[in-house]
Amino acid sequence: MRLSSPLSRLSPFAFAANWSKSCSxxxxxxxxxxxxxxxxxxxxxxxxxxxxxAARHWLEVLVCYPGFHAILLHRLAHWxxxxxxxxxxxxxxxxGRLFTGIEIHPGATLGxxxxxxxxxxxxxGETAIVGNYTLIYQGVTLGGTGKEVGKRxxxxxxxxxxxxxxxxxxxxxxxxxxxxxxxxxxLKPVPTKCTAVGAPSRNICNLCRTNTQxxxxxxxxxxxxxxxxxxxxxxRIEQLEAQVAQLQQTQEPxxxxxxxxxx
Length: 263
Known about the structure:
By secondary structure, the chain is an alpha/beta fold. The protein folds into 2 domains: 198 residues, Hexapeptide repeat proteins (UDP N-Acetylglucosamine Acyltransferase, domain 1); 32 residues. Helix content is 44%, strand content 13%. The protein has 5 helices and 15 strands. The chain has a 6-stranded mixed beta sheet with strand order 3-6-9-12-14-15. Strand 14 and strand 15 form a beta hairpin. It is elongated, with a radius of gyration of 29 Å. The relative contact order is 0.06. The N terminus is likely disordered.
């Protein structure tokens, strides 16, 4: 009994034609991949001048910015990871962590124009997704909350700003143009154009709409959630005191009339 396969059903001429066609397309595909990779790295490089006022010369950015180095190494490690290569992607990630202090798992997906400023202590987990033009400061963790298998790390939208020391944990979504305050612990989703502050974080959407698209470095606009809550309580107490005072004024004449009648 002869085994049939797709190749056995093709004539030698058809097989040769398909093989030559695939070979002719291979250089073009590689050129397209290299062009896309170059544009990606160019966006990663250019965003540093847009986001960091201390960046003055291309040479110091190329040599002295660990966030840029970590992203470059991650691009290579991520490509190898997608090709199914074992060991070497993790080795590249480990080397990047050794020299930059930034740990990015090869399985993490980073969009274009991602900027890791300063970067020491940044950890990005295996299934994390970071959108385009996201700004990440030092000490940020995009991690999981358990040992479950599958998607277990955050999905960060585009143009998001994550402040220093913030921890975004679990399979949650951070909307586009959101802002995470420094030191916040985010355990629940953050809507688009919303600010999250505190530990655990609170979404302050109505009181503080973000401006990460126009002024991503305006960190002073972060609200104080506790101060807002206390101010709300004080306002309510003042309203109740005013109502009590009005009731007392209306009841005093009635009490005087009753004493006059008794007399």
